[in-house]
Amino acid sequence: MKVIATFHPTSSVQDSVKCTLANEAGSEFLVVAKLNRVDFYAIQPEGLRHEQGIEIWGRIRTIKVVPIEHTSRLDVLVLTDHPEPELVFLSFTAHGSGDTALKATKYLSLFERSARVSEFCHDVLVDPSGAIAVVSIYAGRLKVVVLDEEEGGYDRDFDVSISEINLLSLAFVSAEAESYTLAILHYDFQQRLQLLARDLSIEDFQLSPAHSPLLPPILLPGKWFSVEEQTPRLVFVPAVDDTFDGGILVLGGQEIMLYDLASRDVLEKNVRKSRRTEKGKKSRDAEEVTKAKQKEKEREWRKKKARAVITWPWSEVVALVFGNVLLKYHPERANLWCESNKFLIGDKFGRLAMLSVNVSSGVALTLIALGEASSPTTLTYLTNQIVYLGSHFGDSQLLQISSSPVSNLDAPTLPVPSSVLTVKPADPSLVPRRRADENAEGTIVNCVGSYILEVESFKNLAPIVDAVLVDTDNSGQNEIVTCSGGRNTGSLKVVRSGADFQESAFAQGISNVNRIWPLRQMYKDREHTHIIVSTLQETHVLRFEDDQGRVFSSVGEYQKGFITSSRTLAISNILRRTREHDRAPSVYTDSSLVVQVVPNGLLLLNYDSATRQYTRIGDLWTIDKFSDGNPGWVGRNIVAADINASQVVIALDYGRLVVLILEGDRFVRQRYRDFVEDPPRSCTAEISSVTCTPPDSTKNFALHVAVSFWTSNLVKIVSLTGPATESLKEICRTPELPATPRSLLLHNFASNDERKDDRRVKKSRIHLLAGLIDGSVASFLFENETLTDQKIISIGTLPVSMHTCRIKDRPTVFACGSRTSIMFWDKERLQHSPLMLKDINVAAELHTKAYPGSVILASPDSLIIGAVTNFEKLHIRSIPLGYDSARRIVHNPSWRAFAVACVRITPAQIGYAEVFSSSVQLFNDTSFEKLSQLDVEDGEEVTALHSFTTTVSGVPTSFVCAGVATFDEGEKEPSQGRLILLQTDTLQMRLTVATSISIRGCVYALTSVNGNIIAAINSSVVVYNVEGSEKNVSMTQATIWNHNYLITTLVSRGNQLLVGDPLTSISLLKLTGSQLESVAKDYGSLWPTCAEMLDDKSIIGGNSDYNLFLFRLQQNELRKSLEREGHFYLGDIVNKFLPGTLASHEVSIDGPIQPKQLFFTSTGQIGVVIDMNDEWSLHLTALQRNLSTFLERKDGISHSRFRAPKNINGRSDSEASSVGFLDGDFLEQFLHYLGDEKSLSEIMEGQSEPEKLKVSADEVQKALEELQNMH
């Protein structure tokens, strides 16, 4: 069974609104809606502060605020999209103490199985009085929701029929007691674009059959508008004074038109005419009835001219917001009014302009260009000229609108077609306001420079259309490179997971460092004064010179000080240990003593604060001083050592481990042991590493020592307790490790505060860590003198050294090899996070006034001081491409470069064709410097890329194959294209065409098998052989396999091919020699968007209905078949699957789960597909069932129903729940109930005896914690 978990949540913003509490402070909040989540942010002078968030089980379409004033509560409506639309009522509460709460108070289902889905208008409107909401989700009907006038919550709902089937937009234009008017924009049965209004009666539960006299029907010029990407929209313009009674703006076409509403006098006149007409229609005189109907028809189609018009010179309008507008409901006027009417409008290429409706002298429209930002999906005015821009195609932004240009001072504010007349005053506020007559053209102001300043940006990966998983530096730490963005914000995004490091200082001049130790003046001091740096040949002493500990310098060689001519094995401050007599307990006092261990002995030193020098106490303590006349000690060297507050543990060659203590100024041998290998070797066991760090930092001595060996790959823990004459007794050992341990730590990950309060430590945090020479770390839980819970963590390929560091009073371990990882305790388990720095050899804790809570790192040629600011952080690096939208990406290791297929769209005014061009661009895989670009011909587009290596004339040669299609507007399906083989020259890394052939169709996908190119061309799979010499390459067609539909998915594994078409399902082929043969096929209707092979027999994929599916190849007596094993509603379209995982993870020896795949969606989500073994699949399936039942009884929503596979018509009766998949994010909610015994018991026991879980809560916790570590 497969577990689906989220690595990076969706980042595309769907909608946003601003809401305000009616308290004394007037607290303001920004509400941001993403695909499946709503977040509330407090608007503060320093920026946005996240307050609360809630997950929504559905695809959020839009959000609206209920405009009812409360001092402590805000009400928000959330509309989710098909296939099972809902209206969710959210209540946000702000308490006087500063605490906030967010909860869903009502889930109103809008789903109707037999209704026709609305093609254009999926929206919810809330009238300005906050009394009703209107939802458009199905054609021919509206859902009217009556809201509680005092609380703003749900009261009742009913459906109304609407004769305008093809709705494009709706807007409230007036609000009276129990009567409301809706402006409606739609296509009529003659495909004419029509604007009209209808009255909505709450008492009669219907829309008025007759058109509202407030806005008579108006035919709009359809050629001005386009509905291909964005439908036109209506915006109500409130009344300002008695000279203007409000109107309707129609946006989204070549012209912005303002139609005013009927004044009170005209309205009363129209009402009287309507009554006379209705009376005439009811007359018994047939002639009078005919005359009344004729007058009604004449009046209905009487052409009404726009009050004001202005040309929109840019692309489709995708977002708009009121600017500095104060809307109020005026009960006496029975309509809305405001002090000024300004709107911020954005087109799909992020070009922003302000539209001003001037009514001081007539009615005129003024359009002022402001500048360019990300392509918006939503715009929300916050305060003080600050606007929030939410985006799907780029990073969301906080923008400040300036009164003067802030950038691009040499270019026009926005590009405007030459046919459109603009003015360029020195100050936009000085635009002359000329009197506007009927249907007057407005003024377009286009200055020089941009008036938009980005205050803050929010990372967005959406839409991810392609991605690769690479390890460019062979460090074992993968990174993802995605094709993201679009329109004017195309980009490549580089995603890595790791700890965040902020560099403070660095020093050069010392290379090949293998250990670092900081020293303090006194043992119990907090600040460090010296740094000892050891290489394999010598030791360097560095001293902080100033009082702040900011500058450090090298201390010259001092004959009575440290030994610097040899490498140092260990060095540390140490306490002074004294006893009154032999049987008296030891007394430990603070001291300035330091012990240095070198290969040929030990040195005791004392710090002189007056001279700021370390001075030796006595001579070097060589090994023979501990012999007691035994010749077996002579000639031995120290190979490893460790020091704690009162003990020194040294390992000698030939397998001898010695424990020393300091009495006065003398080193005293306490006990020792000679280790031998287990049979059949039975020889001396050479020691590779030792550690004697006490797990309890408040203790001055250790009770256990861990020792590792070169040849046996074992770690043994020996006890220091018992009689002094007893040798070091082994209490436990590890199993044989996969490689030799090179570094050891016996470390407690509990903080000092947690150690003082045992109730905060739920389980032991003492771990044995072994850094292995193969670049991995073995970890064991040490509890009750036993080693359990073995895990292997990959750090790289070089031997791993480990170093303890306390970061912000948090105990951590730095594991350094070919890359560096920080190990720490979080979420009740040991975790690790890669450090975003390369080539770090060793690390050490450092604390001075200038560098508090810092670490010092050694690279191959320098020392680096800095701080770790975030342990677990996703690093997203953006490589902007501007108007080049990346569509396909491949990595060529031999070129050390990424090849990217890009499409560039040149913006055009609405109604004019956009010009596109396409290219293949080459980027360095480390710096992302652009190396080369190859443009294809006009009318062509690069649709597929594939990197492969094949043997040409006996020489392995790397190529990138590009599929190119020629698009003709007159063709339904491309009939011409090319297949191009690309090479690079060695010196300039310039892309060149090795060979090119013409094909009949569009190349939708490419792969390779055994050096042969496999291409999906329209509805065929074609195999090409690559032949010739290195300088004269050719491609020849070998075989072809035809299908019924277009093939858009093509994946190879070995000699098997996975083929998918977007209309039906998937097929499995096999390439034997130069022939393709069909292995198996699914005959269902899945509409797949992409698929991948998990192994030789398993297939995973996603379809256009937002589902995931699993297939497995089965063999029966007659034939092979593809049987569906899983179906799961994800709620997003998957564009790419990639084998592997981003985060390096620990591999538990008996672990039940393994990460298999990454998947990428159109809204920026990165998910993980995790393989679960059969036993735990059953346990977690039962847990998911019980947890779903528990939450359904508690909150009234069903997880099983949400994850059940769906299509456009909703859920199928035959698939009531998901199959073959588990929701990892949902399962992890179990961990929140561990402290709630009542809830935990309900979940574990289920509703009956058969539903009771067969494993304990502790076992479930361990499995879920391991699952959490996978994403």
From TrEMBL:
<dbReference type="Pfam" id="PF10433">
    <property type="entry name" value="Beta-prop_RSE1_1st"/>
</dbReference>
<dbReference type="GO" id="GO:0005634">
    <property type="term" value="C:nucleus"/>
</dbReference>
<feature type="region of interest" description="Disordered">
    <location>
        <begin position="273"/>
        <end position="299"/>
    </location>
</feature>
<feature type="domain" description="RSE1/DDB1/CPSF1 second beta-propeller">
    <location>
        <begin position="510"/>
        <end position="866"/>
    </location>
</feature>
<protein>
    <recommendedName>
        <fullName>DNA damage-binding protein 1</fullName>
    </recommendedName>
</protein>
<feature type="compositionally biased region" description="Basic and acidic residues">
    <location>
        <begin position="283"/>
        <end position="299"/>
    </location>
</feature>
<dbReference type="InterPro" id="IPR036322">
    <property type="entry name" value="WD40_repeat_dom_sf"/>
</dbReference>
<dbReference type="InterPro" id="IPR004871">
    <property type="entry name" value="RSE1/DDB1/CPSF1_C"/>
</dbReference>
<dbReference type="InterPro" id="IPR050358">
    <property type="entry name" value="RSE1/DDB1/CFT1"/>
</dbReference>
<feature type="domain" description="RSE1/DDB1/CPSF1 C-terminal">
    <location>
        <begin position="918"/>
        <end position="1232"/>
    </location>
</feature>
<feature type="compositionally biased region" description="Basic residues">
    <location>
        <begin position="273"/>
        <end position="282"/>
    </location>
</feature>
<dbReference type="Pfam" id="PF23726">
    <property type="entry name" value="Beta-prop_RSE1_2nd"/>
</dbReference>
<dbReference type="InterPro" id="IPR018846">
    <property type="entry name" value="Beta-prop_RSE1/DDB1/CPSF1_1st"/>
</dbReference>
<dbReference type="InterPro" id="IPR058543">
    <property type="entry name" value="Beta-prop_RSE1/DDB1/CPSF1_2nd"/>
</dbReference>
<dbReference type="GO" id="GO:0003676">
    <property type="term" value="F:nucleic acid binding"/>
</dbReference>
<dbReference type="InterPro" id="IPR015943">
    <property type="entry name" value="WD40/YVTN_repeat-like_dom_sf"/>
</dbReference>
<feature type="domain" description="RSE1/DDB1/CPSF1 first beta-propeller">
    <location>
        <begin position="12"/>
        <end position="405"/>
    </location>
</feature>
<keyword id="KW-0539">Nucleus</keyword>
<dbReference type="Pfam" id="PF03178">
    <property type="entry name" value="CPSF_A"/>
</dbReference>
